[in-house]
Write a structure and sequence with these properties.
Number of strands: 2
Shape: globular
Helix content: 10-25%
Largest sheet: 2 strands, antiparallel
Strand order of the largest sheet: 1-2
Length: 65
């Protein structure tokens, strides 16, 4: 999905449970700040599955958590 938008992540680490099933979250590393800024602009956008993306810096917590 990111590459189709012109965003090229360096590394994507998907969080998994003990059985190897995705927890629905991932950490993404970017090689430049432009790709990071483009990804942050996608916060709140709907996905094909009907959920909304939540994108934030790993060292920050969303409000209310």
């Amino acid at each position: 999905m990111l590459k189709s938008l012109g965003i090229n992540p360096m590394r994507i680490r998907v969080l998994q449970d003990d059985q190897g099933k995705s927890k629905g979250a991932a950490f993404v590393d970017f090689s430049n700040s432009n790709d990071l800024e483009q990804a942050l602009k996608m916060d709140g956008q709907p996905t094909a599955a009907g959920r909304r993306l939540r994108i934030n810096h790993a060292n920050s917590r969303p409000a209310g958590r």
